[in-house]
Amino acid sequence: MNIVSGRLDRGYALFQEEYERKALEVLRSGWYVLGGEVERFEQEFAAHIGAKFCVGLASGLDALYLGMRALGIQSGDEVIVQANTYIASVMGITMNGATPVFVEPNQYYNIDVTKIEEKITPRTRAILVVHLYGQACKMDDVMALARTYGLFVIEDCAQSHDACYGGQKTGTFGDVGCFSFYPTKNLGAFGDGGAIVTNSSELEGKIRCLRNYGSRVKYQFDVVGVNSRLDELQAGLLRVKLAHLEQLTAARRRLAQSYNEYITSPRIEKPAVQPGSTSVWHQYVVRCDERGRLIAHLKERGISTMIHYPVPPHLSEAYRDLQLPKGSLPVTEAYADSVLSLPLYDGMTEDEVRYTAEAVNQF
Ligand SMILES: *Cc1c(COP(=O)(O)O)cnc(C)c1O
Questions:
Q1: Nearest Cα to 262, choosing from 234, 228, 286?
Q2: Is 88 exposed, middle or buried (0-12, 13-18, 19+ CB in 10 A)?
Q3: Would you say 95 and 65 are in contact if contact means Cβ atoms under 8 Å apart?
Q4: Omega prior to 309 cis, within 30 of 0
Q5: CA 199 to CA 177: how far, in whole Å?
Q6: What residue's CA is closest to ligand 1, atom 5?
Q7: CA 88 to ligand 1: nearest atom
Q8: Cα–Cα distance between 99 and 218 in angstroms, integer?
Q9: Distance (Å, rounded) from C-alpha 295 to C-alpha 303?
């Protein structure tokens, strides 16, 4: 059997006719940027997540950058963020001139809330949580800390569409919820896309203005903005997928449950879900001390895997200036050296999960 991590063709095939009908409809409409499809998607996504407003953007990175910019985060400010994240979370901070302050993750791969307080200084403006691998962070504790210290909360929901904490969806706890619709995400488009959800009409207005060259009224420019617009084709295709998202998430849950059942090897650390949280299983991440050999073992059996992520942001060349040497974030670094994402994609079959789990057990 050949099992390819991150494949997208299966997910496309699930609703191929609907996607193709919508694509033709948009192509024939003669309107391609910021139109009716984007407006309808924004309304539908806000309602789906349970937020008052949604602003469509060009990417998840732009959502993080513009979300923090709209909050006034700037040079001299510090933003607390978990250290074991995709580098875009950190870039959203530094693009605003602010300084990332890293906090180690807990056993669920999310920010260890008990380690936040010691990192708060007079310069701290915000906490950026990342609902990594699709599991919601412990948001009651995060929000309580933020209230105590008067901090903004930004949620990186790039991997957590529809994940809940205490029955409430990620993206609705903080000041802004930042989503990515990159093709591999749980709600993935067929190109780049992103969005911010918020309950603040003031933030919504600022972000709408920033995404379109800083303009609220045509040819009148209030601030120096950017061009970060969701296009009609992506918005239309996202509307098709959004209507099926609950079904897609349920299928992911079943596949993850099967992995949980079939993987029995004591050499493999399976993912845990924390009480109060749900996971939408953006990734199914295991840990193994001999990861290199496990990868090779699976590859010999036709199974490709991925690592999310092999180099934590503080050790990447891009953030050499932060001067955080190896050893400064030991939990994060140990995870980076041992995590492995097993294949899990829309349209994956139960047989494929069983074959993969058996191969893992044979290791
Ligand atoms: C994918 C991702 C992003 C960035 O989204 P893009 O749309 O690729 O810019 C940000 N944060 C996390 C955690 C991600 O997984």
A1: 286
A2: buried
A3: yes
A4: yes
A5: 10
A6: 60
A7: 10
A8: 34
A9: 9
SS3 state at 81: strand
134 in ligand 1 pocket by Cβ < 6 Å?
no
CA 9/CA 117 separation, integer angstroms: 44
Residue of 68, 86, 161, 176 with the most ligand 1 atoms within 8 Å of its CB, for mutation: 86
Q: Which two tokens stand for residue 313?
A: 């942001």
Helices (H), 176-324: 201-211, 232-242, 245-262, 291-300
Atom of ligand 1 nearest to the CA of 130: 13
Rounded to two decimals, the pTM is 0.98
Taking the CB of residue 247, how many other CB atoms lie within 10 A of it?
Answer: 11
pLDDT tens digits, 210-230: 999 999 999 999 999 999 999
Which residue type does 122 have?
P
- What backbone phi and psi angles, to 5 degrees, belong to 200? -100, 120
Q: Can you give the pLDDT at residue 202? A: 98
Q: Is 252 helix (H, G, I), strand (E, B) or coil?
A: helix
Atom number of ligand 1 nearest to Cα 61 = 9
C-alpha 204 to ligand 1 mean position (Å): 20
Structure tokens at 83: 């250290």
pLDDT number for residue 155: 98
Distance 265 CA to ligand 1 centre (A): 32
Q: Is the CB of 60 under 6 A from ligand 1?
A: yes
**Within 13 Å and on the Cβ side, how many CA atoms surround 8?**
10
N-term to C-term CA, the chain: 17
287 and 107 Cβ atoms separated by less than 8 Å: no
The residue whose CA is least distant from atom 7 of ligand 1 is 60
CA torsion angle for 292, 298, 299, 302 (degrees, to 10)? -170
Low-confidence ranges of the chain (pLDDT < 50): none
pLDDT at 122: 98
CA distances from 123 to 74, 98, 99, 193 (A): 11, 10, 10, 32
